[in-house]
Amino acid sequence: MSELTAAHPLSAYGWDAGFADSFAPYAAQGLLPGRIVRVDRGRCDLVVPDGDGIRSVLADTSLVTTGDPLAIMCTGDWAAVDPARTGAYVRALLPRRTAFVRSTSSKRSEGQILAANVDHAVVAVSLAVELDLGRIERFLTLAWESGAEPLVVLTKADLVPGPDVLGHLIADTGAAAPGVQVLAVSAETGEGVDVLAAVLAGGTSVLLGQSGAGKSTLANALTGEQLQDVHATRDRDGKGRHTTTTRNLLPLPGGGVLIDTPGLRGVGLWDAESGVARAFSEIDSLAADCRFHDCGHASEPGCAVLAAVDAGELPQRRLDSYRKLIRENAHIAARTDARMRASMRRDWKLKQTAARHIAARKKDGLY
Predict the structure, then answer these.
(1) Which SS3 state, helix, strand or coil, does residue 251 take?
(2) Rg (the chain; Cα; Å)
(3) Closest CA to 167 of 177, 182, 148
(4) Domain segments of the chain as ranges
């Protein structure tokens, strides 16, 4: 079966035997596999096989439209495409392996999916401004929760005054990112870009960060082309304009693809309990030695986490950040549960109304 071979036209975009197995029922229907490159207003751009090569198609998404915000198609999804002569349609989405999800800024307790089927979540952090370790921890929490492998990239390394200062910044970031590789790069000089390209080769990566973090410049350096528009950041705060306005999937010359995303102002947690545990793995390990299994690490006797803080083995800042994210995640979970309960109550009331209506019609001899 050609879909199972490395020579498949879409292999450079991440196609493999697992996706081929998921697609098998659609192949029997004469549909084509395709990877979504961009989604925009009810349509999406995809790459699909075309003989031994690939071609781009613009497809209608109305057949897979859903009211579930977490089931909405996004960049990185794999799809079954009907290449009808009157216009291509997306017939179905293949099951996702990973999904990067954040909470929306609305009051509706909904999640928003930013990228799907990602192997590496690259958190871009600008060295043109003071490091915000709390924000890095927040990004890493969502990255771990997504199922992707996180990676922190400190951009604009050429602006740092000397290797000693750069070394301290890398060390500080590493202390806030246990188990995560930290790279310093400069798209201006090319420093570290080849190392990053080697790490990302062959897989799917998503580039995340605030506006002004240098994501578009980095994307251009990695792709070797001027694909993304770039604007200078403001001197007073290091922030830039949102030069990337949509999520785009870009092929990398060394193999693999990169999903560039708009700058994220808000990075709210969404059902990220395991992500918090991974992002603060040293606290999770210490907690195993607490006297009480439900220790809140506040003032309980026999708390191994507080003992580590007192001994200088765990920074107080890390514990404060951990507590903040735990509270936030619990809050969004409670809001989501409340929304689900309210939805169930509405459904129950509708069924009650329908049952009373049917009973009344039966009584009147209309049934």
Answers:
(1) strand
(2) 24
(3) 182
(4) 2-93, 99-260, 280-367
The total number of residues written for the chain in this structure: 367
| Fold type of domain 280-367 | Ribonucleotide Reductase Protein R1; domain 1 (1.10.40)
- Backbone angle region of 64, left / alpha / beta, with phi > 0 → left and psi within -120 to 50 → alpha: alpha
Within 10 A of 139 (CB to CB), how many other CB atoms are there? 25
Task: Tell me the angle at which helices 215-223 and 193-200 cross, rounded to the nearest 10 degrees.
Answer: 80
| Domain 99-260 class in CATH | alpha beta
Residue of 272, 353, 316 lying closest to 133 (CA atoms): 316
Single-letter amino acid, residue 263: G
From first to last of the 367 residues of the chain, give the pLDDT tens digit: 444 445 789 999 999 999 999 999 999 999 999 999 999 888 999 999 999 899 999 999 999 988 888 889 999 999 999 987 668 999 999 999 999 988 765 455 578 889 999 999 999 999 999 999 999 999 999 999 999 999 999 999 999 999 999 999 999 999 999 999 999 999 999 999 999 999 999 899 999 998 888 999 999 999 987 765 554 443 344 444 444 457 899 999 988 999 998 877 667 787 888 999 999 999 999 999 999 998 999 989 999 999 999 999 999 999 999 999 998 888 877 776 666 555 645 665 565 566 566 666 656 665 4
Contact call for residues 48 and 73 (beta carbons, < 8 A): no
**Residues 122, 208: Cα–Cα separation, whole Å:** 6
Q: Which fold has domain 2-93?
A: OB fold (Dihydrolipoamide Acetyltransferase, E2P) (2.40.50)
Cβ atoms 321, 137 nearer than 8 A: yes
With tokens 């070394």, the residue in question is 167
* Contacting residues for 236 by C-beta, under 8 A, at least 6 apart: none
Both structure tokens of 235 = 């001197």
> Minimal CA–CA distance to 140: which of 102, 96, 93, 89?
102
End-to-end CA distance of the chain: 56
